[in-house]
Hints:
By secondary structure, the protein is of the alpha/beta class. It is built from eleven helices and 14 strands. It has helices at residues 39-49, 64-75, 119-124, 126-130, 143-156, 167-170, 187-194, 201-214, 252-265, 270-284, 297-306, and strands at residues 4-7, 11-18, 30-37, 54-61, 83-86, 92-98, 104-110, 134-138, 160-163, 182-183, 218-222, 228-232, 235-241, 309-312.
Amino acid sequence: MSDITIIGGITADIEGNPYGQLARGESNPGKISIAYGGVGRNITENLARLGADVAFVSAAGNDFVGRAAVQELKQLGVNIEKVSLLDDENTAMYLSILNIVGDMELALCNMDVLERISIDFIHDAMKVLKASKIVGIDANLTEEVQDFITRKLHDAGIPVFLDPVSAPKAERAKKMIGRFHTIKPNRGEAEILSGLSILNEEQLRGAGRWFSQQGVKRIFITLGSGGVYYKEGEREGIIRPQAVHLVSATGAGDAFSAAIMDAHVKQMDIEETARYGMAAAAVAMEAKTAVNPKMCLESIDEKLRKGIFNLSLLNNNVLIE
Ligand SMILES: Nc1ncnc2c1ncn2[C@@H]1O[C@H](COP(=O)(O)OP(=O)(O)OP(=O)(O)O)[C@@H](O)[C@H]1O
Ligand SMILES: [Mg+2]
């Protein structure tokens, strides 16, 4: 049994970058890269690198990608007993072909295996979930499964954390939003979850109030380069990032999510948690990959020591990004 259990997707992201103009119906020379992804998997890897006691619940194909992804997590110390490698499915994959200027020309998305994380599948892992200090889910899970998990764990008094993954996927978590203890949407995801428009600080506070009224205890709305808005009870604020060394912003949100779950286990207060999350996001942004292999407590400490943040007092009504 682990302190933190994550339930979510494992994906392989395959990206093709042509060396010249793309020609349809032909074989184009170019660079092809493959990387692991999946918000749940990324959060789990970040947590393992932070030294957290973490278990992962997921499904992938019994193919070389799925086996390797699980092996990597195992080597990092993740409890992978509840990850199923299925013979009759392939690992979830996202295949994209970009054009010469780096815009996506065509993509194919094969997420069928994630549907196999069914209610029965979760039922089978319930002992592990109920023994955790916090359970995190990503919105790759179906609405029915999210409904089942949040109902069972809410009744059992186990805090559940949500990363909504993307604005379209955030729809799936809307109905049961009040059963989450902590949520970390970005601004677009928060708009979908609340049905409110969030264009300035006043509307941001309005959304924070709305989530609180639904029953969410801790709210973190990440704002990309604008930092993060946080709220717990009467305590709220915005922390702005300063002097971030940006290599790639992909995966910054996943690192933020991982860190705030680690902070929950370490019983940090809301402001400390928000700073810790931002420091982890700053570390994530220093690598090209979604998860920075250099993610560790020491790198986060270094960011915190450098004081890369600015606490804003939420009294000016300016645009967020
Ligand atoms: N361009 C940036 N400059 C400075 N900080 C950034 C930038 N982009 C992201 N961050 C930091 O990372 C945190 C999370 O980023 P963001 O709001 O983009 O999450 P997200 O949309 O969930 O990202 P992801 O692509 O990982 O899902 C922000 O709160 C901020 O601290
Ligand atoms: Mg995100």
